[in-house]
Amino acid sequence: MGDFKLTSVDEFEAATARLLETGAKVGADSWQMRVKNQSPHCKFGETGVCCRICAMGPCRITPKAPKGICGCDVHGIVGRNYLKFTAGGAATHSDHGREICHTLYLSAEDGNYKVKDPEKLKRIAKEWGVETEGKDIYDLAHEMAELALLEYGKPFGNQRWLKRAPQTTQDIWEREGIAPRAIDREVSTSLHMSHMGCSSKPEALIRQSLRAGLADGWGGSMCGTEFSDVLFGTPKPVDTEANLGVMNAENVNIIVHGHDPSLSEMICEYADDPEMIAYAKSFGAKGITVSGVCCTSNEVAMRRGIPMAGNFLQQENVVLTGACEAIVVDVQCIFPALGPLSKCFHTKFITTSPIAQMPDSEFIEFHAENAGENAKSIVKLACENFVNRNKDLVYIPDMKQKATVGYSVEAIVKVLDGVTNSQVDETGTTKPLLECITSGVIRGAVAMVGCNNPKIRPDHAHIELMKKLIANDIVVIASGCAAQAAAKAGLMDKQAKDLCGAGLKRVCELADIPPVLHMGSCVDISRMMILAATLAKDSGLKISQLPVVGCAPEWMSEKAVSIGNYVVATGIDTFLGVDPYVSGSSEVADLLTNGVREWVEAAYTVEKDIDKLVDSMIDRIEEKRAAIGI
Ligand code: XCC
Ligand code: SF4
């Protein structure tokens, strides 16, 4: 045990500096250089006061020009921009969910995609009132996929998944008029409302932002998560490793990057095939290593223990190792920079989705019907590329940590069963976890999510916040690039229990878990919503009363704004380390950090100082405990 040590951000940065030297040798560009070129950022954009939604503009609000040409004031402009920002994120997550539903629709006994968790499919079918008795599992899969797809465009009614929330939460959504209707409708309505000459009233724009967010978290993302589990298996604890050192200099290295597990699952499948391994060997490699970047990585790590090479701002580093034969991407968070960068090396940059097409990439279109064939040809291409490596350029930082990942709600309930000696709950409720919380052994939970952003020293905020939280007996559940930051540092190694306060340490020992639990990708924040809903139901409390908060200290994408909106709208206070371009409007900023609390019993806090950020989260958790007398 004595040899356990976290990897520090200083060490991450030393490794990056060394890789950038390789980059300089081959004339590669890097985000570190581009940030310099883009600094300082445009103040109008940064504060959200620039409007270019019609061709009379662009209009920029200043003290001398307080209104746009149409007369829109700064609050309307900032509010509209915020709603459009949200709509982009809700559309993106939900479309990912839709792709998964289509894959489920095409699943077949002898097809590329099979149903790996039939029990979960049946559970969801029962929840949706669909008869399962005597039905062939694939008939059921197709029926459920079609019903799920209808959630995107149904003309009447609200999202089916909303019924998973406690009644009190559903009542709030009804009362406030934010219960999401069809997923696509909420996205379209958001774009309609923020069109020139529609809404300019901040309350209306922020209300719709919450609604569109809910269509994502309790709609599209939930479809993505739940049906990915049905197709690829519901995650359970599995050991893996994280950081660039998972790449292997003697092997063919294939990096999977993006979000949709349909592609990466297939690549992993073929990379394991003895025929492919023999093929790799025929080019002088010892084997094939698949590792991941961003959420695709989280997906295959959670289900297969595939190692995580890094998170968002490390995506260029994997190419800079000089040992990457192919970087295969699907959708979202992929730097267009990867094309030109790969050209500086032997690396093949392979795009696979019509949604994410980029210059300087090889496009191999991937869909359910040809998935097997195409995955095989991609793996082959990578093997053949091994001989093109320039050995002088190869440098893989010797840096990796052990991680145990795969904590779906189902897995969390299971591992925490029996932690308390009073009872072992066979019904699979969250009672044992609740007991830990009410007794004060665990003070509360923080959901740490989101990206990296050059505005924040990469990974530093994630890691420092998590360290302080666990030292204060606050369990951390993490997803997305936040989870990868934790894994790279070593916080998902079970030995990290030694960094916890006495209470959380004891729980980690009894349950044999790390103090930071990997719950998956960004769409999997819907898992966190289900967990919060279950905790509320099992305790008889409202979600807003639970000592639980959300935090995205390094977020950057539109998706993150959509997520923030549904987390807040679900009654969970959310702490951001980066401002969502709303500081230009006192009214919009005040609504988000204050006003929405009257609607949904939670609000945002934006705080760039991470010491203050963590202290305010701990204070909030303690306030919540005091309010319910625990
Ligand atoms: Fe993308 Fe999901 Fe953000 Fe990471 S955390 S940078 S969105 S990969 Ni969701
Ligand atoms: Fe300017 Fe109004 Fe057009 Fe926006 S909508 S660009 S504020 S005229």
UniProtKB/TrEMBL annotation:
Protein name (Swiss-Prot/TrEMBL): Carbon monoxide dehydrogenase
Cofactor (UniProt): [4Fe-4S] cluster
Source species, domain of life: Bacteria
InterPro entries: CO_DH_a-bundle, CODH, HCP/CODH, Prismane-like_a/b-sand, Prismane-like_sf
Top-rank EC class of the record's enzyme: oxidoreductase
Amino-acid positions noted as binding [4Fe-4S] cluster 2 in the UniProt annotation, renumbered to this chain: 51, 54, 59, 70
Recorded GO MF terms: 4 iron, 4 sulfur cluster binding; anaerobic carbon-monoxide dehydrogenase activity; hydroxylamine reductase activity; nickel cation binding; peroxidase activity
Gene source species: Lientehia hominis
Keyword set includes RNA-binding: no
Binding sites annotated in the UniProt record for [4Fe-4S] cluster 1: 42, 50
Gene3D superfamilies, A to Z: 1.20.1270.30, 3.40.50.2030
Known catalytic reactions: CO + 2 oxidized [2Fe-2S]-[ferredoxin] + H2O = 2 reduced [2Fe-2S]-[ferredoxin] + CO2 + 2 H(+)
Keywords for this protein: 4Fe-4S, Iron, Iron-sulfur, Metal-binding, Nickel, Oxidoreductase
Lineage, top ranks: Bacteria, Bacillati, Bacillota, Clostridia, Lachnospirales
GO annotation, biological process: generation of precursor metabolites and energy; response to hydrogen peroxide
Positions bound to [Ni-4Fe-4S] cluster: 259, 295, 333, 451, 481, 522
